Fold this protein.
Amino acid sequence: MKLVIISTDRRRAKAQTSVLLQSFYIGREDPVVEPPGFHGPNLWPNMPEEDFHGPVWDYYNLTSSLGKTIWEILLQGLGYEPSQVLGAFAKRPIVQMKMIRYPPLSATREGQFGVGPHTDFGGVTILLQQPGKKGLEVWQEGGSPEWIPVPSIEDVYVINCGDMIAKWSGGAYKSAKHRVINKGDTERLSCATFWHGDAAATNPLDPEDPSKDTVGQLLFKRFGNQFSLDMKKDGLMEKKTDGAIAAH
């Protein structure tokens, strides 16, 4: 099983209110699948190179480079030397890209989300929204808590930090709760690239961190919750072996 692959299905939600979207995943292009599935070959549709694989792969690589640059900026903001931290933490980082289609409002049930309220899993998220297609909202805490619409502007990225960055930075960077509700009468498209770090890496900012969870373990736990994965049924058992998750 490879977690970073094509996924074109209706996601199952554990809450009573379900979510509705279609998505296509890709990740690093590696020759063989490595447990627990974050590295391996991508599965591409049978389409002309110039119509899909070419532009999608080029965009993946460009946003992967941008994700590394954003990590460098965040590390500088915390007073670290980026090259030293990334040199130890991101030799072969998990970088996933997800292309998403949200159906029009008419295709959803009452109370159904495109994506329900959540925070992102791990590292940096680089989101490109279809211009003029509203739907993304961020939860504003404080004096007057409310959902704030995020404008969808052409050639403008939305950058978000995930739970892992929030934890490792001691809260200096926040992991914002957000949701998607497509309120339009047409479909809505977006594309998100997630830049996490090495699967076996632990907190590079605090070697004394009592939590020894690796990047891979943190992500796999959240994947299991989000996609209702049955690790035993799917043959994916969580086991600590030299700081990584093993598959059996």
Notes: Residues 202 and 213 are 6 Å apart (CA to CA). The radius of gyration is 18 Å. Helices lie at 53-77, 82-89, 163-168, 215-226. The chain is about 20% helix and 20% strand.
